[in-house]
Design a protein that fits this description.
Blueprint lengths: L6 H22 L3 H21 L3 H25 L14 H24 L3 H6 L7 H9 L5 H28 L1
Amino acid sequence: MNIEITFETITFAIFGVLTLAGGIGVVTTRNLIHAALYLIVSLFGVAGIFILLAAPFLAAIQVLVYIGAIAILIIFGVMLTRGMTHLPERFNRQGGLAAVVVIGGFVVLLVGVILPVWGPNGAVAAEAQPIFMTTRDLGIALVDKEQFVLPFEVASVLLTAAMVGAIAIARDDESRD
C-alpha cells in the first residue's frame, strides 16, 4: 500500500484531528462553556473538510449557521442559566449503556455506509453517475413550500423558543434573590 503525502492529505489530517479532538473535548469536559468552545473547534474542522471536498457553500453554511448561530446560542444559554448547572460527577454509571449505543451506531454505519461503498456491489455503485445540485437548487429547496421550508422554519422557531426560555429561567432566579 503506497500512500502519497500531498498538501491535501496533510490538510485533511489537520482538520480531522481538529474535528476529533473537539468532539472528544465536548464529551469529556466538565465545564459547559468549554464544551461549547470545543464544539466550535469540531465544527470548524468539519468546515475545513467541506472546503477540501470542493463544497465551499456547505463550508460557509457550517461556519455561519452552526458556529456562528447554534454554538453561540448554546454559549448564551449556558451563561444565562449558569446557576442551574451543578455537575457533581464527571462520569456517571451509564458507561455500559453508552458503549452499547456506540457499538450499535457503528454497526449501522458499517451496514449503511461502508458496505455499499466497499462491499461486493461497491464497484457497480461507483459507476453510477452522481447527481449534482447547484446552489440555486438548494436555495429553492429551502424556501419552496413543497420541500424544506417547514423544517427550516420549525428549526428557527425552536431555537428562538430555547433562547427565550433560557432568558425566562435566568430572570426568575434573579427575581427570587
